[in-house]
Fold this sequence. Notes:
A: alpha/beta; 8-stranded mixed β-sheet; 23 helices; 26% helix; B: alpha+beta; 3-stranded mixed β-sheet; 7 helices; 9 strands; 23% helix
Amino acid sequence: MWRVIGRPTVLAAAGFPYNTPKTSVLASSSARAGCNMCFNSCTTRVYVEDGRVVSIVGHSEDPVTKGRLCAKGQLLVQMQDNPHRMTRPLKRAGRRGEGRFVAIGWEQGLDELAAALERVRNEHGPEALAIFSGTRSGLLALHGMAALFRDAFGTPNFSGTNAFCAMGADLAFEMTQGVSIGNSGNAYTEADLGSSDFYLFIGDNMAATRPVNFGLIQNCRLAGGARMVVVDPRHTVTASKADEWLAIRPGTDMALGLAMIHHVITRDLVDAAFIDRWVEGYDQIRRFVLEKQYTPEWAARITDIPATTIVRLAESYARAQRAVIFACRGITQHSNSAQCSRVLMMLAVITGNWGKPGAGVMMIGSSLPLGAELPLVAPRPFRRPIRRSPAGWLEAMREGRPYPIKALIMTGNPLSLWPGQAALREALQNLDVVAHLELFRNESGTYADYVFPMASGIEAGEVNRLSEDRRVVWIDKLVDPPGEAKPDYWFWIELGKRLGFGDILKEKYKDPAVLWDEFMIQHPLVRGMSVARLRRDPRGWVRGPLVSEDSPEIETLFLDGSTFPGAPAGRRFPTPSGKLELWTERLDARLRQYGLSALPEFYAEPESLIPLPHLEYLTSDSAEGIESPFWADRALGRTVRIVDRSSAQVEGYDTELVTGRPPAVHFHSWTHFFWQAQEICPDLRVHIHPDKAAPHRIRSGDRVVVESPRGTIEAIAHVDAGIRPTAIFIPLGWDERQPYHPWNPVNRLLPAEQRCPISDQTNFKATVCRIRKR
Amino acid sequence: MPQLALMFDVGRCIGCNACEVACKLEHHLGPGQFRTRIFDGTSPRTGRIEYMDAVCQQCERPACLRACGAGAIAKRASDGVVVVDRSQCTGCQECVRACPYGVMGFDPVNKWADKCTLSLERRAAGLPPACVAICPTHALSIGARDELSARARQQGRTVRAVDHFGLEPSTIYLESPLGPLMGTPAPADPATAARA
């Protein structure tokens, strides 16, 4: 009955140190470092011999990880000598997309790129340059030198990966608690998140996406007996460890949240004392939810979860002493990203599950304010960002509207991971110059004119990616990168120098410790997080906010009786009212600019198997639109109205398409270049229910074709009952140029225009498709 | 000396493969080589995804040992761990075929049988095996078999019966303490049925 995950794979190019003579790893010297791949932010110990990485293990003195580490952190051992790494700058020799390049030197590459950018600036203005510095590029680039270059050059069109990840959650936290730092301020410790009585996971497969954090939560749950419910269209690994799994209709979580709020209000399960003292706008929300009759019966039809189950869920959540909601990309990657996030936060707030250990809402977003605030250099009258999300840049690249983007510098793998893949490929052909900064030669690189080899983690010197619970892990440079690879921040300093920005993008910032201390921790909330303190801490991390080097760490933010760091004495929540804000006139006025309201009117995605309220966009991406009231740079956005009719696009498509992260061994694009990750999880697999598979005579292992209104891909079928019978699941991260198991990415099926008007977050989670045997 | 054993908690394992990676990293195993491997399936009892660790059972009566004509396989008196003497191994793979658990590995480059030693070198340095040390969910433990069994009994845990071949395997598998998974996928959508 047990079967192998993946299939045996013959791989020729196994990297060091496999099948090499085993010298004593234990005897060699090791240094403390961290994994820079995901948001779990695990600390590591790296063993180096003769300048080569020979082993990576967990750091046993870390009280959060307890020395545990998932496959990804260990597989970083396959970075330095990886045969697929980029080692020299390349210049395109064939057509864009063809993949023919010649090796050039850094000097030539940077000089030519700088000259091309100058031409673009002279012809079209500085706004015609767009920069995508994904989290792969590291915080020292994303919130550091790339951001500084952006301001020096004078373009507002700049994005990291967060536009595709947690932007909606971040804004919702800011609206609710006045600040977007560390989610609801809770931490992955036994005393905080481990102490909960009730774990509600909605659209969060933590066991696969943050295995070490999940280990901590699960240990506490098995010891203390906390209840655990997982809401997900799939029987995920996380669901397999729960008491209950609810296979919700994709994209309807907001209805579930509203119905739980309705039940909690009508049965008087709210925390009245907490609301009285700490909540602003409860009456407006209460009236609205009751008037709209967002009852469990109403939600049952929408969500496919029986009303009795919704009632039971609401009761057990509200009656728990401490209940936590883990809501991840299943919530944020929707066109109701910000509003649905707010609804879940409202549920937590009215039941008093905020500002105490074992409670709150955790959404992998909402980072520390590292780097400097806008503007970094003397303000100049530049135009508004075209959109917050790069998915909204496509018309500017294709049509030159609302104003042209003619140059793109990108990192990571947009040609696997952005939506609207066909339009994106067309758009890239229209640009004057495209540069790509990356570790490996991937599909995105083939569309670039210049491809630059990058170094990261212990080859560069940097910090972890932003952790969910405000931990910063300092990573010293321990080894040299392969060939001529350089850190991203080095690239931006060198490029800046060639454009006359040497006085701002200073040479001394090439030293990551100087860059961190002098540039990254300027914000008053993180001023105490110096490299000296980060290096000194035996745990391997320091938790922010930390206003000075000698201030104590705060494990749980917003505790009763506490003052938020930097706020006036006694100010628990840094909102205008000092309370948690569910509805205010100011917030309502802001949201009305988009055509929405601070009252959370339910809507879902336009593509669904039953008609559901959804957005109609009154502004296209080629029009200017409105200036966002939420961001300092006042990015342009779209206005909408909620309509209640079926979308025409649905005709002919009978299957819900859900996407998400593959098994734990993979992280987006880069693990696809590690042979051992490929041995564990090789091919792109479609998870399909036996009832869905049977009429098409699809069996596990069959090659299938999946079509959406955007495109067609193929994959291998995995027939298994652990999914809604009406849905299929396809993981992200594959691309057609990967060396071991190339597949067209699932994002070829996903739309670029279905985005949350408030946060500009793309819907990756609920569209339609059809499937057949090839 | 007491029999040393690995204990695998089915209830905790999330199939993240960290143990597999740690094992190969520690023991420098190449493509296709495994000393431990995680398999997945659905439990007929609970309907949950469950994982199993295919790893040497350190049997009391090892089939591999009996199959080896070269006398290269021995069961250590000190800890009951079954080891391969590479200098004696002819690479005939009779042991690989003999193991009914399918967990005797083979090094195709050096042409010798290769198996789990519960990280002999690490234990000599006072450290737990690589897989035990790394596991994010603490699903693996190591200790004297009798003590591990006693602890499991004391905690009310059920040990999965895996001695199907009369070899007295030492590795302990703890059944998941979780009952059947509540909540089932919604029935086929009428809207879909109408379209299809």
